[in-house]
Amino acid sequence: MNSGENPQEPQDPQKPERPEQPQGAEDASAAAKGPPGSGAASEGAAGDAPGPSGAQQLTGRQRLAAGLWPPRVTRAQLIVAVLLFGLGLGLAIQVRSNNDDSALRGARQEDLVRILDELDNRTQRLEDEKQRLDAQRTELETSSDQAEEARKQTKEKEQQLGILAGTVAAEGPGITLTIRDISGTVEPDMLLDALQELRAAGAEAIQINDVRVVADTYFSGAGGEVRVDGKAVSSPYVFKVIGKPQDLEPALNIPGGVVQTLEKEQATATVARPEKIIVNALRPAKRPDYARSSSQ
């Protein structure tokens, strides 16, 4: 045995032998560890970047939630959101306003038919008035004696205004409405409703008993003691109405109209079409206290 050589150590039978690594593998392992002091940095970098096993632990729903919350709102997105909110609020208010303003949505069919007929009649009357005024203008422009033509038209206008004011008697086609109230149940507002229906149907001159109806006519009193413009009137109440009979009579006889309402109050209402209606009750001409003509 050579004294310079180390004696061979006995091998532990329970300790596995460490396989010998080639010299190149040891150098590669040392290079991977890096210089001294770089171990902490390497471990920190490895801790920050999750490995493949860490990425597989997040499900698709978790990645979606992580992308949506917390929200990252820019200034432009906030402005667009405010504008869209204002636009939606305005549209909602407009739709609600349109629904609230539709007063005819729940009206009965007969009421809608009556309103439509009244609108058609009013449109026709306005169209006739327009044609008449156009004809008067044409006559004034083409007449050789324009002063005489102007005086003629002024006289006609005076007659028309006198009829409306009740200071001039009138005659023409129309109807009579006779209301007999034996039990005294007809109230003044019922007579007012009849008057309003006749006016809406195109009545041009109206007389109740011996009282001329004008723009400021009013009803007062109670059932059996009705007063028109402060003057007492009694049953039967006779309405003499000048106008187009084809429009006046249906306005009173519509379902739920004046005639049916009066019949429910145990009163009778009769409509007739004489050949000519004469309205001869007159009202005194009143000079207005404050109003003056604005024409020069």
Describe this structure in words.
The chain has 10 helices and 10 strands. By secondary structure, the chain is of the alpha+beta class. Strands 4-3-8-2-9 form a 5-stranded antiparallel beta sheet, covered by helices on one side. The radius of gyration is 51 Å and the shape is elongated. Mean pLDDT is 77; it is low at 1-10, 12-16 and 24-55.
Which properties best describe this structure?
alpha+beta, five-stranded antiparallel β-sheet, three-stranded antiparallel β-sheet, 10 helices, 10 strands, 14% strand
In terms of topology, how is this protein built?
Blueprint: H1 23-33, H2 39-48, H3 52-56, H4 60-68, H5 75-100, H6 109-142, H7 146-165, E1 170-172, E2 174-180, H8 188-200, E3 205-208, E4 211-213, E5 219-222, E6 225-228, E7 231-233, E8 237-242, H9 245-253, H10 258-264, E9 268-272, E10 277-279
Antiparallel strand pairs: 1-10, 2-8, 2-9, 3-4, 3-8, 5-6, 6-7
**First-residue to last-residue Cα separation:** 154 Å
What order do the helices and strands follow? Answer: HHHHHHHEEHEEEEEEHHEE
Catalogue the unreliable spans. Answer: 1-10, 12-16, 24-55
Structural class: alpha+beta
* Annotation field: number of helices: 10
For the largest beta-sheet, the strand count, sense and barrel status come to: 5 strands, antiparallel
Tell me what portion of residues adopts beta-strand conformation. Answer: 5-15%
User: What helical percentage do the residues reach?
Assistant: 40-55%
Count of strand segments? 10
Global outline: elongated
Average pLDDT reading: 77
Report the radius of gyration as a whole number of Å. 51 Å
Q: Biggest sheet: strands side by side, in what order?
A: 4-3-8-2-9
